[in-house]
């Protein structure tokens, strides 16, 4: 009965994603109040998180299925495509996602503050900035082969990975439109369309992989072609939905998109640094492993573990996006306790998910590698790494959620320093010492880097516990005054073209 009563108190979302006006929570003082608030926040979270998780899982499946299809061509092809996607692709993905995440802060808080018309302008600014960023990243694709050789990859693997990287340059440019459009829609809780677009794109991608690799036998060329086509189908569908069905936040192209670009770039760079230091961390794990003896087996086994870890991470990245929307919206509306309790509820649920996935991996450690490879040596190597994979999954259940809170609250610069210290000053050097000096191989490298993740998670939990949510509301109000005051909001309608 309590659950039903709490559910009735949850405001229904209107078609445009807006909530009915509500008062802020009071401080909870009893178990009953805790359970009521937890239930209400759970319902609100999963109304947003469910479709976002579906979207992100479908998007990630495009990468994962590309690896699976290529893995059945041969071990060299699997290593090359994995290196390309995990090093070059992840490098650019992390940077572009980080640049686009500035939009998550601004759009979420602007929507909460009622400045809906500014969302389309923010998105257009982000399109411009991310497109320019793509050109800055082009040399990493064009010169991927020599870069990978400098990083210590075997010549045959580096050459094939470099060739594949050049073939997927069109996919890079799709990210410049993809990420801002997603953030625009997420801030308004218009996430169901994203889920459907992602699902249809995944089905199309599977068909293209089968056609180009299995039927036409085009090898990694077919894999790259399917990857490019699917990425742009996704982007075009998202933009058409924004133009056709998002009249509240989209009022047409505007010259205001060119206003205050430098300030927007600085906020985007702060977001990029924070997320890049996270995303690139496990890219470094693949690179360092490529220097070990029998590198092909080491990289293949680790790539399979990272692939599965990525599947789990997609769930938590979806929750990350949802809690970012919840926090930014509530701060924009001036409701600090709703922001606070939404965070606590989300962290608790994510921890339960992490425990479940860790146990599942340990139970199936001798079997799951067969999905990715026919090699008995690789399967055995994967089984030996399963314990580290389970620990990583447990840690990754909490860390992305708190990162989402950081994005929703605009703490990117603070978290960037924590990531730099824990990951690159502590975790990565420790992993290299254990892997090479202590001769523990990939287990040592990964184990040391897990210590860095654990340290980062602990510090973020401490910061979260000490957060003054009333102060966060004040800073949000100041940010909205700076980035989208009423005068600018009025100009948005006048300057639309």
Automatic annotation (TrEMBL):
Subcellular location: Membrane
Protein name (record): Protein DETOXIFICATION
The keyword Magnesium is assigned to this record: no
TM stretches of this protein: 45-62, 82-106, 127-148, 160-179, 191-213, 219-243, 264-288, 308-329, 341-364, 384-408, 415-437, 443-465
Gene Ontology molecular function: any one: xenobiotic transmembrane transporter activity
The organism's place on the tree of life at top rank: Eukaryota
UniProt family annotation: Belongs to the multi antimicrobial extrusion (MATE) (TC 2.A.66.1) family.
A Gene Ontology term for the protein's cellular component: membrane
Region Disordered, residue ranges: 1-20
GO BP annotations, alphabetical order: xenobiotic detoxification by transmembrane export across the plasma membrane
Phylogenetic placement of the source organism: Eukaryota, Viridiplantae, Streptophyta, Embryophyta, Tracheophyta
Cited PANTHER family: MULTIDRUG RESISTANCE PROTEIN
InterPro entries according to UniProt: MATE_euk (IPR045069), MATE_fam (IPR002528)
Signal peptide: none
Keywords annotated in UniProt: Membrane, Transmembrane, Transmembrane helix
Membrane disposition: Multi-pass membrane protein
Main location: membrane
């Amino acid at each position: 009965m309590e659950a039903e009563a709490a559910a009735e108190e949850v405001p229904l979302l209107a078609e445009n994603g807006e909530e009915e006006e509500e008062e802020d929570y009071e401080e909870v003082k009893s178990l009953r109040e805790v359970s009521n608030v937890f239930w209400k926040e759970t319902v609100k979270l999963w109304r947003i998180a469910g479709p976002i998780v579906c979207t992100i899982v479908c998007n990630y499946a495009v990468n994962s299925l590309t690896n699976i299809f290529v893995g059945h061509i041969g071990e060299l092809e699997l290593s090359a495509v994995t290196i390309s996607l995990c090093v070059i692709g992840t490098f650019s993905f992390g940077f572009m996602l980080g640049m686009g995440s500035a939009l998550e802060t601004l759009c979420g808080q602007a929507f909460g503050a009622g400045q809906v018309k500014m969302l389309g302008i923010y998105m257009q600014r982000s399109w411009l900035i991310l497109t320019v960023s793509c050109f800055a990243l082009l040399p990493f694709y064009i010169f991927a082969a020599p870069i990978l050789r400098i990083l210590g990859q075997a010549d045959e693997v580096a050459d094939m990975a470099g060739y594949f990287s050049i073939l997927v340059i069109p996919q890079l440019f799709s990210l410049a439109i993809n990420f801002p459009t997603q953030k625009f829609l997420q801030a308004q809780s218009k996430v169901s369309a994203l889920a459907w677009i992602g699902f249809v794109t995944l089905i199309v991608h599977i068909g293209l992989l089968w056609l180009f690799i299995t039927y036409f036998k085009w090898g990694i060329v077919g894999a790259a072609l399917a990857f490019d086509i699917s990425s742009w189908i996704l982007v075009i569908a998202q933009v058409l939905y924004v133009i056709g069905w998002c009249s509240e936040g989209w009022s047409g192209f505007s010259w205001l998109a060119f206003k205050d670009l430098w300030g927007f770039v600085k906020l985007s760079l702060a977001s990029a640094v924070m997320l890049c230091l996270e995303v690139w961390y496990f890219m470094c794990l693949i690179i360092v492993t490529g220097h070990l003896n029998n590198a092909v087996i080491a990289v293949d086994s680790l790539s399979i573990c990272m692939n599965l870890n990525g599947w789990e991470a997609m769930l938590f990245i979806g929750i990350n996006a949802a809690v970012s929307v919840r926090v930014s919206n509530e701060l924009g509306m001036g409701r600090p306790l709703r922001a606070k309790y939404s965070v606590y509820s989300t962290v608790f649920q994510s921890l339960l998910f992490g425990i479940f996935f860790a146990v599942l991996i340990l139970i199936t450690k001798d079997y799951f590698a067969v999905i990715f490879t026919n090699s008995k040596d690789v399967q055995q190597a994967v089984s030996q790494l399963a314990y580290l994979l389970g620990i990583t999954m447990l840690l990754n259940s909490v860390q992305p959620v708190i990162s989402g809170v950081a994005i929703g609250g605009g703490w990117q610069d603070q978290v960037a320093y924590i990531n730099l210290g824990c990951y690159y000053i502590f975790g990565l050097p420790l992993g290299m010492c254990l892997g090479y000096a202590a001769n523990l191989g990939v287990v040592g490298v990964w184990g040391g880097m897990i210590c860095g993740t654990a340290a980062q998670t602990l510090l973020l939990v401490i910061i979260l516990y000490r957060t003054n949510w009333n102060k966060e509301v004040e800073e949000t109000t100041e940010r909205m005054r700076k980035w989208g005051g009423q005068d600018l909001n009025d100009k948005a309608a006048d300057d639309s073209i």
